[in-house]
């Protein structure tokens, strides 16, 4: 098991004919993702790497039956329409790669997804990878590196930073700890699935034994995670690092979500909330990986004993 | 978030039929005299600043006579609070206030929805005064009755219920039309007659949607706690029209002292950048600027970022470091940096941590291409932590060696050429005729060039190439520079940078 994606799910690429769409379709195909085709209006009838391109999602669904996942590579201003099209055509999971999606567009997608029982990762995400099974988006870069950096295992990785999703997974791999799935939830202030929501998915996933999380200043995700743990909804052990210790209020460091607003979302309050809920909060990445290894060893020991 | 001034916000409210005090934004005494002739006395004069708590800071004055008004205006126009100077003053009639309320709509990241907040008591510290709130469904919008229910639950009745709900109901329409991140009217004045009048207004616009609102005249759609610097404006223009990857830049220190402690910082990815800056700070350095090129930017974007970072005089070193295991093609970063460093004839040391996708090739490009410049440049990969790289930079920094600003002027294109997404690729075919290998053609992974009559020419439809088929990876130019006849010139303009550097060199750093 893994969460969100495996080698059996049927995947559509919206914006397949663009620069990023093409390059990442290659990665997904090579890695084993079951990509069935793509959509770019005006390019219907073309092929990309032998995959059919359709003008509409509807045509893709007619040709292939139910589609499980759509990965969006359309530019930010066009994301809202593309996402609505996917959800209206019955696709239940969207991965929205582009950044600079207007926040009210994201809110509209959230509201529609709730009505239709769909969910989405992003916007502004590198994607999701279930090592040696399938990848969605651009995580891992090229096929060789994606295979080298991510290894199958029982650690669930959640990160608000794309680069850190990969770095953390690589350092875990190097320490002998493979991953069930690694999820970059996206750097925006409002994202489809937040840290606690992904944590709940890992909680329900039998393969995942331990979660490793890269959080950041801004938003209330880490506080809400702490709340979910205290409420008993999440029981698996968690090791976390919170970025942005030295940031001052009102300054944004790249991620639209990484800003302390109105006294909320500061470093200290996040760390305090997580620690009081029993999360191991590390000060450096080295410490994070070492702590993960230690706890993982204890978990494996417990289960065997 | 891009902020609007009070007077801009109020103009929008007025367009929606919300009552605001009569008045005008001015910056001269003559305008004041004319205005007083129109609206009479007493008046309130409000310095237009992007800060809260203006009253306590003295940026809001009350005047009962023309003399008081003139004195207040002259005071305000000379006033600076923090880094903000008052440039405009909003002068308005004084309103007889019976009661003050607060209303605002913010975006709640936990509920993933807009949330309307109302408090029957206005003024500062509203959160403490226990307001009421309601989640708005973006697909349904906000209905008038929902506003009535909400504010009635906070004790508003009678004529005020009608006038207030009318005003608040319009706020959500404004939020949607202008893509606001937040809209806040505090206070809303209720008059004796029960009219609701907006006395103040804060609107912030979503950075990612500014392109939909050219009428707002927002110059730099970024969160700043001060007006953007000129260099930040130049950087923003690079990013504004180029959607390939992200380039984010701001200055932390604007007048960098030549003390050997300030570093030009070039990160990749928000999370990794934070880490990397922490490592520099731990070594006792100060970060001159924040910069992030990520999301798989082409070499041209990384080049422009480097040129902007290197427009900061007196930095003692250049530190590029991201998450360390990047999915983006690190050769793009390497080539962008190489072009910039070569042009600059870089002297200060640079440590470049290019871990991740294609890191071996990226590090090799740096090593091979930069051996001829005065600066010491070291390249590292994913197994070299930022702490180690920061120590390397420390070891390379030379006392008394600071970055000097050179003039920046675009070279003339060679005779043959075509447009790329953000520049011009030009070739000197006379030089090509003496070149045997034509490796420029193979160096291009995108098949842009082909051989015709023994010289490289465009192989594709020029429109396609201009739209982005040539991603500006700079591979052909650098191949030709090091192994060919230096016959390829890729010209990548950075509007405003040349003039900016001229002024720096002339000593006018304003």
Keyphrases for this structure?
heterodimer; A: 305 residues; alpha/beta; Rossmann fold; 2 domains; 7-stranded mixed beta sheet; 10 helices; 14 strands; B: 510 residues; alpha+beta; Dna Ligase, domain 1; D-amino Acid Aminotransferase, Chain A, domain 1; 7-stranded antiparallel beta sheet; 5-stranded parallel beta sheet; 16 helices; 25 strands; elongated; succinate-CoA ligase (ADP-forming) activity (chain A); NAD(P)-bd_dom_sf (chain A)
Offer a concise description of the structure:
The complex is a heterodimer of chains A (305) and B (510). With 305 residues, chain A is an alpha/beta fold. Chain A is 38% helix and 21% strand.
Rg estimate of chain A, integer Å: 19 Å
What sequence of helices (H) and strands (E) makes up the elements of chain A? EHEEEHEHEHEEEHEHEHEHEHEH
Q: Can you identify the CATH superfamily of the largest domain in chain A?
A: Succinyl-CoA synthetase domains
Count of DSSP strands of chain B? 25
By CATH, the topology of the largest domain in chain B is Rossmann fold
By DSSP (H or I, 4+ residues per run), the number of helices of chain B equals 16
Largest sheet composition of chain B:
7 strands, antiparallel
| Through-space gap between termini of chain A | 23 Å
Number of domains in the coordinates of chain B? 4
- Which structural class do the helices and strands of chain B define? alpha+beta
Structural class of chain A: alpha/beta
Can you identify the CATH superfamily of the largest domain in chain B? Answer: Succinyl-CoA synthetase domains
Are there runs of chain A of 5+ residues with pLDDT below 50, and where?
Answer: none
Largest interface: A-B, 66 and 61 residues
Backbone shape of chain B = elongated
Low-confidence stretches of chain B: none
Number of structurally distinct domains of chain A:
2
**CATH top level label of the largest domain in chain B:** Alpha Beta
Pfam families (chain A): CoA_binding (PF02629), Succ_CoA_lig (PF13607)
Protein name (chain A): Succinate--CoA ligase subunit alpha
GO cellular component, one term (chain A): succinate-CoA ligase complex (ADP-forming)
InterPro entries (chain A): CoA-bd, CoA_lig_alpha, NAD(P)-bd_dom_sf, Succ_CoA_lig_flav_dom, Succinyl-CoA_synth-like
């Amino acid at each position: 098991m893994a969460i969100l994606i495996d080698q059996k799910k049927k995947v559509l690429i919206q914006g397949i004919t663009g620069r990023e769409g093409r390059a990442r379709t290659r990665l997904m195909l090579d890695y084993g993702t079951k990509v069935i085709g793509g959509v770019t209006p005006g390019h219907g009838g073309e092929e990309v790497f032998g995959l059919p391109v359709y003008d509409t999602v509807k045509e893709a669904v007619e040709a292939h039956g139910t589609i499980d996942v759509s990965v969006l590579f359309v530019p930010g201003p066009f994301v809202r329409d593309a996402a609505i099209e996917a959800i209206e055509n019955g696709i239940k999971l969207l991965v929205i790669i582009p950044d600079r999606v207007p926040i009210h567009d994201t809110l509209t997608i959230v509201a529609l997804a709730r009505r239709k029982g769909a969910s989405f990762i992003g916007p502004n995400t590198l994607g999701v990878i279930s090592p040696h099974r399938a990848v969605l988006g651009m995580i891992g870069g090229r096929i060789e590196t994606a295979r080298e950096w991510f290894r199958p295992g029982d650690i669930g990785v959640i990160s608000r930073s794309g680069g850190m999703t990969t770095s953390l997974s690589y350092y875990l791999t190097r320490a002998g700890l493979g991953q069930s799935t690694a999820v970059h939830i996206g750097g925006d202030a409002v994202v489809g699935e937040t840290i606690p929501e992904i944590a709940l998915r890992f909680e329900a996933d039998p393969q995942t034994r331990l979660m490793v999380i890269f959080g950041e200043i801004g938003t209330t995700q880490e506080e809400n995670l702490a709340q979910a743990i205290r409420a008993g909804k999440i029981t698996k052990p968690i090791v976390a690092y919170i970025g942005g210790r030295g940031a001052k209020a009102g300054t944004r460091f790249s991620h639209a979500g990484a800003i302390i607003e109105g006294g909320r979302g500061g470093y200290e309050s996040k760390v305090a909330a997580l620690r009081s809920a029993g999360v191991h909060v590390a000060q450096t990445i080295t410490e994070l990986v070492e702590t993960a290894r230690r706890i993982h060893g204890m978990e494996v020991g417990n289960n065997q004993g | 978030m891009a902020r609007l001034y009070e007077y801009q916000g109020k103009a929008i409210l007025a367009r929606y039929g919300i009552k605001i005090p009569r008045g005008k934004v001015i910056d001269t005494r003559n305008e004041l005299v004319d205005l007083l002739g129109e609206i009479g006395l007493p008046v309130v004069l409000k310095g237009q600043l992007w800060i809260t708590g203006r009253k306590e800071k003295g940026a809001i004055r009350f005047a009962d006579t023309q003399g008081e008004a003139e004195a207040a205006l002259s005071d305000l126009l000379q006033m600076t609070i923090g880094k903000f100077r008052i440039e405009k003053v909003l002068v308005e009639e004084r309103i007889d206030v019976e009661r003050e309320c607060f209303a605002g709509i913010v975006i709640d990241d936990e509920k993933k929805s807009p949330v309307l907040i109302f408090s029957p008591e206005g003024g500062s510290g509203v959160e403490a005064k226990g307001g009421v709130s309601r989640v708005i469904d973006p697909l349904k919008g906000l209905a008038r009755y929902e506003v009535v229910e909400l504010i009635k639950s906070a004790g508003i009745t009678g004529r005020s219920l009608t006038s207030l709900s009318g005003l608040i109901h319009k706020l959500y329409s404004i939020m949607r039309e202008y893509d606001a991140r937040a809209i806040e009217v505090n206070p809303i004045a209720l008059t004796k007659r029960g009219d609701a009048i907006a006395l103040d207004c804060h609107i912030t616009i979503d950075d990612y949607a500014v392109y939909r609102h050219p009428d707002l005249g927002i110059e730099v759609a970024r969160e700043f706690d001060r007006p953007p610097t000129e260099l930040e404006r130049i950087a923003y223009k690079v990013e504004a029209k180029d959607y390939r990857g992200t380039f984010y830049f701001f200055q932390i220190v604007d007048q960098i002292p030549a003390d050997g402690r300030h570093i030009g910082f070039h990160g990749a990815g928000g999370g990794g950048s934070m880490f990397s800056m922490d490592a520099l700070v731990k070594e006792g350095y100060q970060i001159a600027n924040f910069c992030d090129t990520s999301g798989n930017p082409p070499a041209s974007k990384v080049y422009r970022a480097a040129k902007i970072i290197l427009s900061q005089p007196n930095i003692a070193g250049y530190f590029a470091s991201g998450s360390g295991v990047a999915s983006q093609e690190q050769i793009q970063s390497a080539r962008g940096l190489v072009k910039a460093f070569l042009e600059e004839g870089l002297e200060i040391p640079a440590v470049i941590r290019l871990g991740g996708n294609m890191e071996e090739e990226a590090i090799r490009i740096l090593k091979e291409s930069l051996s001829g410049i005065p600066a010491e440049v070291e390249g590292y990969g994913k197994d070299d932590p930022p702490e180690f790289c920061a120590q390397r930079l420390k070891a390379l920094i030379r006392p008394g060696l600071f970055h000097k600003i050179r003039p920046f002027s675009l070279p003339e294109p060679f005779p043959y050429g075509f447009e790329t997404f953000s520049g011009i690729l030009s070739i000197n075919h006379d030089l090509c005729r003496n070149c045997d290998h034509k490796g420029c053609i193979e160096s291009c992974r995108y098949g842009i060039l082909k051989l015709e009559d023994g010289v490289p020419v465009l192989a594709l439809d020029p429109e396609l190439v201009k739209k982005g088929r040539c991603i500006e990876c700079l591979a052909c130019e650098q191949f030709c520079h090091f192994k060919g006849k230096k016959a390829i010139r890729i010209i990548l303009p950075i509007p405003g940078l040349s003039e900016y550097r001229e002024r720096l060199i002339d000593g006018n750093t304003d």
